[in-house]
Design brief:
The chain is an alpha+beta fold. The protein is 31% helix and 23% strand. The strands form three sheets. It has a seven-stranded mixed beta sheet with strand order 8-7-3-6-5-4-11. A two-stranded parallel sheet has the order 1-2.
Length: 261
């Protein structure tokens, strides 16, 4: 069993290499995209699959924080800025609710460095991903959300709406007059009003993700997310960066999936 996160490939070409490597080994090809295992989004998917909100028409996904790791600030290593490192999760969410037999076709995106002087890439970005049937996913990513990790999603349907908030509506509200220590990932402060996240590995989907991969590997069955999913997510981000440069819609290049490795 091999597991490879989106961040392991800076762009689609590297992901193609990984996909072909997997086929050469004839191994399970697990792509650990945590968001499709996060309990809140899993429940949202159950509601959608059960018809609770009718037909999903659009998805909005946001991930942002104000404290990027040192290596993430190097575009040549990261393959971009927050649009790559955080936006990839948002793309995966959009595809999960609007696919899977509905490939992303084109992207219109904006990105710019609005505030940070310690990065060479964009520090905020927005992208609209249009899928084959005309529905869209909106991706928001940034490195200027100083309050801490901000992970929110909206699924809009013909007969309803679902919203998830992994780091804001945690069920815990506290006011710390003294240092509270660790509060949540990339927290902006450890005093004052805060919403600590209880059991972060569970809330973010890590526990369910690893359990799923082990179960699927033991059963010799394909996982929920594969290297091919990572390739598609990266191809969407690649198109988004091209759109930022061209200021127009850019096609998502998925030709690599049509080539026999």
């Amino acid at each position: 069993m091999r597991a490879c996160a989106v961040a392991a490939a800076q762009h689609c070409a590297q992901r193609v290499t990984l996909v072909r490597y997997r086929y050469g080994l004839h191994e399970n090809r697990d792509h650990p995209e945590t968001e499709v295992f996060a309990p809140g989004l899993v429940k949202a998917k159950e509601l959608v699959d059960g018809g609770a909100i009718g037909k999903v028409l659009s998805v909005r996904a946001r991930e942002a924080h104000g404290h990027p790791h040192a290596h993430a600030r190097i575009p040549e290593r990261m393959g971009g800025g927050p649009l790559r490192g955080l936006g990839c999760h948002c793309v995966a969410i959009g595809r999960w609710f609007l696919g899977p037999d509905n490939p992303p076709l084109e992207v219109m995106a904006w990105g710019d460095r609005l505030y940070r002087d310690d990065v060479a890439s964009e520090d905020n970005a927005v992208a609209i991903v249009r899928f084959a049937d005309g529905r869209v996913a909106q991706v928001e990513a940034g490195w200027t959300h100083v309050a801490g990790l901000d992970v929110r999603n909206e699924i809009h349907g013909s007969h309803g709406w679902i919203g998830t908030d992994e780091t804001g509506a945690t069920g815990v509200n506290a006011f710390a007059g003294r240092q509270a220590g660790y509060v949540l990932e990339k927290a902006g402060a450890s005093t004052g009003w805060m919403t600590p996240v209880a059991q972060e590995p569970w809330v973010y989907g890590y526990h369910a993700e690893l359990a799923h991969f082990i179960e699927r590997f033991a059963a010799s069955a394909p996982p929920r997310q594969t290297f091919e999913d990572g390739l598609i997510d990266n191809a969407v981000i690649d198109a988004a960066y091209r759109s930022i440069a061209s200021r127009t819609w850019e096609r998502v290049d998925l030709l690599a999936l049509q080539t026999n490795p």
